[in-house]
Amino acid sequence: MHTFVETLTGGERLRRLARWGARSGPPALLHAAPPVFGVLFALLSRRRRVQLTVNLRRARGGRRRVDEPWLVARTFINYASCLAEALAHGRPEAARATARLVGAEHLAALPPDQGLVVVTAHVGAWDAGGALLARDLRRRVTVVMEPEASAHARSLHDAVRAEAGVDVLHVGGEALAALPLLRRLRSGGVVALQLDRVAPSQRSLPVTLFGQPASVPEGPLRLAALARVPLLTIFARRLEAFRYEFHVGAPITLARHPEPPELTAAAQQLAREFEAFVTRHPTQWFAFERLGGSGEI
Q1: Is 229 inside any structural domain?
Q2: ∠ CA(185), CA(188), CA(194), 5° rounding?
Q3: 90: part of which helix (H) or strand (E)?
């Protein structure tokens, strides 16, 4: 995903230009530019366009359909729009952003002062979603992610996230190696991790996804177990400019030292919820990279 981000924004200089356009440009530019750039990079990025087609076809039952080119183009446009809105923090429209909750009862049932592990994915406005969670839940939100190759571009984007109240912790291996996460969870914070990437150094759990063997990272489950906090999925869907819909899954509570069957069952629940979201909203899944021989989602 990070490689595609760099391709789309051209590294530090074009990312700064994109940041200026998103934050300070006229509203017409903010609304008109993302579809243009989305289509442009769909045309120029043949490898990612082909890979996205493969992943979308997998999510739709493995059959080729006549609407595939439209869905691929729509996904690139959605991605460009979500990226622009994530960079737009600081403008009035971003401050008025709204999110409708599907499954709000799952969040309402949790103690307001308890830490929470959120499992998300590269879907919809996941980046802007962290800012909305921090704002609406009034909690400290930490997003765990692998670092981008460009340190300058990474610093720029992380600064935008920090302005929105979201901390970013970059890790190169297991997320559990970052002990600050446990402290943040135990102090009532929210830690968000991605489900649809398994780094080579990460441990994974086997699941079935779209009828095929796959795997998901074990780290989020182990982290929730060690911190003794609930874990749930939140997948963000972009409806239109600065209007989103968050799909919240049922919380999972694990034993402090869960046995393998408990971990596998929990991982499969996460995979089912991810599959259900992508099946309903395939153009919100930004699966531009090869899923890999190990079957990770």
Answers
A1: yes
A2: 45
A3: none
Question: Dmax of the chain from CA atoms?
Answer: 55
Walk along the chain (297 residues) and give the pLDDT tens digit of each residue.
444 444 444 456 667 777 777 888 888 888 888 899 899 988 888 888 998 998 888 888 877 888 888 999 999 999 999 989 888 888 898 888 888 999 999 988 888 888 999 999 989 988 777 878 778 777 888 888 776 666 666 677 677 777 777 888 777 655 445 678 888 899 899 999 988 878 777 789 999 999 889 899 999 999 999 999 999 999 999 999 999 999 999 999 999 999 999 999 999 999 999 999 999 999 999 988 765 434 444
Count the residues in the chain. Answer: 297
Report if residue 168 sits inside a domain.
yes
- Write out the residue range of the structural domain in which residue 150 sits: 2-284
CA distance 88 to 23: 4
For residue 206, tell me if it sits in a domain.
Answer: yes
- What's the pTM value of the predicted model, to 2 decimals? 0.86
Residue 102 is assigned to a structural domain of this protein? yes
Q: How many domains does the chain have?
A: 1
